Amino acid sequence: MIFDGHSDILYGMNQKRQQGEADVFRRCYEKWFRQGQVEGCIAVLWSNPDMAVPAAVQVTQQLQTLKQELEVCGDEITLLRSADDLVQAQQQGSIYFLLGVEGLDGCPQNEARIDWLYEQGVRHVGLTWNGANDFAGGVHTGDGLTDLGRRAVRRIQKKRMLLDVSHLNDGSLRDVLLVADGPVIASHSNCRRLCDVPRNLTDDQIKAIAATGGLIGINSYPSFIASAREKQDLQHLTDHLVHAAELVGTEHVGLGLDLNYWAEDGTTAELPELQQYQKAEALLQLMEQRGFAKEEIRQVCRDNFLRLLQGALA
Ligand SMILES: [Zn+2]
Questions:
Q1: How much distance in Å is there from the Cα of 132 to the middle of ligand 1?
Q2: Alpha carbon of 41 to ligand 1 centroid (Å)
Q3: Scanning 39, 69, 220, 222, which has its CA 20 to 30 A from the CA of 255?
Q4: Which domain holds residue 255?
């Protein structure tokens, strides 16, 4: 079984609902999860800066979409609010979402927004997407953590929400690690040693994240796997898993597959070999061929994230 540390499914479901579709999860996405044996994911609220709709409104729409989807398929999806919810979902075979937020855009000058998000069920926070906001700088900017960002980091960790540094620029990541007092994750970032893009992590950053008790989730987004197009495949994705595991041990590595929910027909995989999740089994087989023991595969593909989820839900 697989746990996916980063999913934009709420964005995809909301796009379809805004176009008048209903019962979206069951009709469009459930089969991806079932066929790929993906039992749960961190499902993030993400506001697209290219849309005319303000960030705060996009987040509100996505929350409303989640609520409406839960009303029609409450057996198929569980929104996790407690450790008991996780146990129950696993027993019932219900696909579970840990609700997260990818970027605190739309919450200017106000860390109290974090309390509001928590009340909505959010248990995971990334401070920024690629741009900068009042809290921190993303990979397209040169800014570090602001004073408000420092207070936010403390508030997030006091509430035991998962703190996610994927998308932060190097200065902001450094600053978060100085302030953080608990596990930090990079839910969907690869190894910069193998693919030198700002969204990936240096060896030192990976070690520092592991030292907090956190993990890095390896991302299937092609241009984070390799710069050469012919190397953007599952073999080279596995290279990132091997490298990260050699650096910090398999207990600090996970999967944050970051599938594409933008395609008009909802069927185009970023990485065709994965066919969304439906061919995820191939990744597990490759890991075995590359020397991961069965127990290590279980850790990387599921258990490491679950250990952190249990901390966030305690
Ligand atoms: Zn992302």
A1: 14
A2: 14
A3: 69
A4: 2-313
Which tens digits make up the pLDDT trace of 150-178? 999 999 999 999 999 999 999 999 999 99
Q: Residue range 34-46: average pLDDT?
A: 96
Number of domains comprising the chain: 1
201 CA → ligand 1 middle, Å = 14
The alpha carbon of 37 and the centre of ligand 1 are apart by a number of angstroms equal to: 22
Q: Mean pLDDT score of the chain, rounded to an integer?
A: 94
pTM of the predicted structure, to 2 decimals? 0.96
Pairing of strands 77-79, 95-102: parallel
Domain CATH for 12: 3.20.20.140
CB 186 within 8 A of CB 217: yes
In this predicted structure, the answer to whether residue 106 has a pLDDT above a threshold of 90 is no
304 Cα: distance to centroid of ligand 1 (angstroms): 20
Q: How far is the CA of 76 from the centre of ligand 1 (A)?
A: 25
Distance of CA 271 from the midpoint of ligand 1 (Å): 16
**Ligand 1 center–CA 254 separation, angstroms:** 15
Residue-level pLDDT at 196: 98
Helix (H) or strand (E) holding 202: none
Distance 120 CA to ligand 1 centre (A): 21
How many angstroms is it from 258 CA to the middle of ligand 1?
7
